[in-house]
Records
---
Amino acid sequence: MLIHILAWLISCMPMHQPPPTKPAPPEYTVTFYANISDTNGEFGWVGHVWVSFNSPQIQTVVGFYPSGLSDDSWRPYDVSYPFSVSAEQFQSGLAVIDAYRNKHYLLGFSDCRGFTANVAQAIGLTPPSTGIKSPAEWLGALVQINRP
């Protein structure tokens, strides 16, 4: 009788169930873009560097110009590099956008490279010197310095 009860209890127990799965954490990505020459001729040979923020809730692409911040989702690019970041780093990067809403553009000091360097620093990266490098060279240096 005891064997029958034990056999019945064992038959009622779930067998070979996989462990419960946790939902994947949301992915936060900050991608830096650069083009070698400005396609609309606004800045001649200088080029441009800008950034996108992508999460399940936010998708925005923004660059900094003499006229201020602008949606750069339309802009073609020559090089890009994504960085996976935490939610906190993502929010810190977005805060740079707010900080630049009233900034004045000054080539070599407060320009597209300065903007993206501040985003890079806010998300925990070490930005390269803005120096005299083109935006594409600056992005290459950012990737090389912060490569895992």
---
Amino acid sequence: MTESIYEKYLINGEKVANVHTVCDNKIHLAITNKRLIVVDGGETNFYDIKFGSIVSVGLEYESDKSYLYIFLITVGAAIFSRQNIFAIANEEILNISMAAFAVVALFSLVGYLLSRKSKLFITTKDSEKHEYILKGADAKDKAVNICLDIRNADERYYNLSE
């Protein structure tokens, strides 16, 4: 979504500072100099959160740890077998097993990285909690950037209104 799509939602003197997409690119957050505009479902649903009503902005980070456990077990098994504790006398069988361990370890590490997700929370004065999910390897960085953008815009809003 571009800034021009938000033109119909802007009020006098309002300008879009940043636009972020969340929830598998289904929700767009436009941070303006006066409020946060949320467009959900391809421009069909719209609501806004005024900076004066935001009480807190935070994030929660999680990942599917089972992939990490599989990775660690696989690496441990590979090291264990490499030490010839399994008494594999045939070098070719040992090399094939090491390649299999490497493939499993690689897939489990990629699975762990792709399962990472962050939840962005915005709480308002009326105790309404808005939650947005970000997924992927860069989910945490993206959520942190959105939090900082909202906090900075909120601070600028209060500095201008004083």
